[in-house]
Amino acid sequence: MFKVGLIGCGNIVNSHVSAIAHVDELTVTAACDISEANLKRMCDKTGATGYSDYKEMVKNEELDLVIISLPHALHREATCFCAEAGLDIFLEKPMGISSDDCREMIDACNKAGVMLWVGHPQRYFPTNMFAKELIDSGELGELVGFDETRNCEYFTENRPKWFLTKSMSGGGIMFNLGAHALDKIKYFCGDEKIAFATGSAHIREGFDCEDSAQGFVKMANGVSGTLNLIAHTKAYRYEDILYLTKGEIRIANGEVYYCGEDGVFKTQTFEIVHDNFVLQLMDVVKALKSPDKKPAVDGDFGLDVIHAIKCIYGEEK
Ligand SMILES: NC(=O)c1ccc[n+]([C@@H]2O[C@H](COP(=O)([O-])OP(=O)(O)OC[C@H]3O[C@@H](n4cnc5c(N)ncnc54)[C@H](O)[C@@H]3O)[C@@H](O)[C@H]2O)c1
Fold first, then answer.
1. Pocket residues: Cβ below 6 A from ligand 1
2. Which end of the chain has fewer beta carbons closer than 10 Å to its terminal beta carbon, N or C?
3. What's the structural domain count of the chain?
4. Whole-prediction pTM value?
5. Strand pairing class (212-219; 224-230)
6. How far apart are CA 54 and CA 5, in angstroms?
7. Is the pLDDT confidence value at 114 over 90?
8. 265 C-alpha to center of ligand 1: Å?
């Protein structure tokens, strides 16, 4: 049994804790948050011992794994501290607020010989796993292009305020939701590296982060893709299109629509046995039990995503 400590007990931790209930090898024994209310809610839910300081938690508790779900600017310090303490780490996406931050985390984890898994859970959606199998089968030819459009209300009342403060979040919709799109294009390309990225982000007057952004990325294998993320609409749309030499795959509304050279679309629907957070943690456990503890999504992967977003912003080259 691996003992888990939670660092940050906000919104996303609910998904991790619900998932842990389906993963026999994980148990939450400690939790930390500076918000008394969030900490109490999580301790009541899990029976964990609560702390307001994660350094105290790490010193006092015998933990195997920490799940870090903090505002993005705090990822680096917490990850480096836990690595130095010899703990394996699951770190929520996006990995950090700059490429330098990510490199520091990678170095700290390598030096300490601990696992660093960056949580990019959308590859565990049944739609995306089905699309990946279809691509890998070769039935529709070779993947040549990717396009994501995501329209949603981003600046909602219940979004924690730090997401809208660039020094804490690293950026707006592209930083937060674009990280998922870049995870997907990398996943569909066999975890290929991003060779080039550019784009543009629009920050409205009075705001600190962008609410709409467009990106263009080219993968090392030549596949290219566009990202169009728009945050000021109630007209929800979330669609990925994959262009192949002999067909097309569209992912939307929890379904996959795909066609071959005849252009006639078939629809694939899904029955969900385990949600994507359960599947992700099952893979984390597999890695923890393996001799080399190799994560499926490691620090270099997380860094590649952050660097591409920073290039889209024009803040890194
Ligand atoms: N994988 C996904 O689909 C997904 C979805 C949402 C959020 N996330 C990611 O999860 C992370 C957290 O996001 P969230 O939505 O849960 O945010 P949140 O604001 O709800 O939670 C963050 C928590 O961290 C606590 N905190 C802040 N400073 C702290 C400190 N020094 N020590 C201990 N606790 C501290 C806050 O009080 C809060 O409870 C981010 O990286 C975010 O991008 C991922």
1. 7-12, 32-35, 38, 54, 69-72, 74, 92-93, 119, 121, 160, 176
2. C
3. 2
4. 0.97
5. antiparallel
6. 9
7. yes
8. 40
